[in-house]
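From the pipeline queue, job 12 of 40. The input is one protein chain; the requested action is below.

Action: predict structure.
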Amino acid sequence: MDRNSVIGFVLLGVLFVGYIFYNQKQQVTAKREKDRQDSIANLNKPKPVDTASYTTAGVPDSTKLVGAYGAFAGAANGTQQTAVLENKVVKITFSNHGGQPSLVQLKQFKDFQGKPLMLVNSSFNRISLQVPANNNTLLNTADLYFTGGNVQQLPDGSQAIAYRLPTSNPGQYLEFVYTLKQDGYAVDFDIHAIGLENVLPAGQKTLSLQWDSQNDKQEKDMQNERLNNQVHYRNTDGKHDYFTLGRTSHEKLDTRLEWLSVKQQFFNTTLIARNEARFAGAEVNTKVPESGNIVGQTFATLEIPYNRAHDFTFPIEIYYGPNHYKTLKSFDIGLESIIPLGSGIFAFVKYVNKWVIIPVFNFLSGFIGNYGIIIILLTLFIRLLIAPFTYQSYVSQAKMKVLKPEIDELKAKYADDQQTFGMEQMKLFKSAGVNPLGGCLPAVMQLPILVAMYSFFPSSIELRQESFLWAKDLSAYDSILDLPFTIPFYGNHVSLFTLLMTATSLMLAFNNRGMADQSNPVMKYMPYVFPVMLLGIFNRLASALTFYYFLSNVISIGLQWVIQKFFVNHDKIHAQIQENKKKPAGKSKWQGKLEEMQKRQADMQKRQQDIQQRKKQ
């Protein structure tokens, strides 16, 4: 065994040991994270009162209850009772156990199985204030029984319900008042602390509001739901930010907040500080269960500024509803920013969506009920918008096709001198009056629209559960065949719109094959390889998106044939090019600088070749 083999085996051994160490470290970190999440879950889950622990000879022992619950001992036991606030779009069931919503149903929506869509549907979902008991312990109001709970009809058509949590001292109580307007998805939630300034610890400047939220499976694609399960927030400076539950398990927000939102793919629950009030900060922990129908769980603690007034009020608004752009924008607090209309390096396309795509889409949906037809008309509108650039592109391609024999001659003549070839090619383009970048302009113009559609269609709730042709849900993939196995980088189903999109992309590449550099294998075959590479990505995306791309390709193929057949005269273009060559060529400043730079590079390359030649001699 030679020295190189020994070194190779040593390096492999080091890599193997490093991998084992890294893997073990990751497992330990994952176990610590799981233990932390389980600890948070246990801390926040409902704590039923063990009545036997606070009784003597079968009779409630008030001394023991006071010892455990302090001034709130009278609320330790009770009988659960419910009441309902309801309008046309939402039905909220409240419970006196915690004085909080226990069920929230969106009446105009169904889940992927056709069942009523519930945003709150388990004991995990809790809204609770932390209040002090004896021995420096804290109680969660979600574990206590409130009084009241009678529904009141208000003159403006709103409904209200009030829950009160009294202390053992007369005139001291905590009160939650909920008001649901006649229409809309938001319910006002007013927190009143009356006479509690001496009950709460001295120096306490904030009240901790615990908000536990569980997102159950609403759509058929769990993986896509988890990618869209996020926590969004906006601070008092108007800055919006977010994180995804599956990627971030803990976030501490040391800033004053206007709102905090737990977003699902098409729905969200948001706590909004009303009437100039603001949350002092928040701490958010998240958990994504490994199995089951739970998409994600959020444990949030929001700090409420507390001025220790005798009659303290903090106004909150809770939004239970869809991620509908117009609805969220109506709040005028930037809540619509939770809808992913463009992010990262393509953040600018959100303006294309806001100013072009969404207004046209809303206009068409105002009088057309079939969203498949709306997508067709939207596609035609966009293609009409960029039609002048498309025409110029095909004209430029025709000019390049006419010049191709001369370009091939230059390429053969200067095969060993790429710098000179580039300069001569630019001279040819200039003398012929051809802009070599003319064919790129439509692609540049169309790219923001393509990216905007990539963001718009998968997040548009209007398309949710809307069918067209064989697609049962335009917001999800259109599976025509479910496979009993999973194909790597593809999936376990076959999306027909994705196949049609890929096929038409290959047809476009074939039609434009003359424009690629045939001497460069990468440029020659990339137009064919790229659509196939994207097949696995688009196979699980919204069928509305793949239908749009397919339709756009079909229109491109049709336009290409029509323009080249009836509008582009190659003989006329050839004659025009020859006529341009006879004219005295004027140079623009940009072209002059470019040619000067190319000449300097050519001279430098020639000098380097001369130096190398002398060294050889």
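Job complete. The chain has 15 helices and 23 strands.
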